[in-house]
Each structure stands twice: as C-alpha cells, then as structure tokens.
Amino acid sequence: MATKLSAEEVLRYQQDGVVAPITVIPPAVAKELRRRLESVEKCFPQQIGPEKR
C-alpha cells in the first residue's frame, strides 16, 4: 500500500481537487471489519441494521 500520492494522482488532485479511489486499509482488514459489522447488525437489527448505515 502506497503512503504517498503518485505524480499522476497529484496532477489529478491539482486539476480536480480530489483523488479517488485510494486504499486506506488493506483489503483483508476491510473484509474482517465488514464481517464483524454484519455480525453485530444481526445481533441488534432494530438498533443498527443494514438499512441504518
């Protein structure tokens, strides 16, 4: 995972004011966090179900 913007990304930011998409956490970590979130949503569907994301 890169920690700096590439020259192309810097140019896009200068032109457009945004750079997207960018990876902020590794895919495996994102997958685990989503699994945990969905597990909690199943336990508390009224309070934090998927429709409340």
UniProtKB/TrEMBL annotation:
Identification of the protein by name: Uncharacterized protein
Organism: marine metagenome
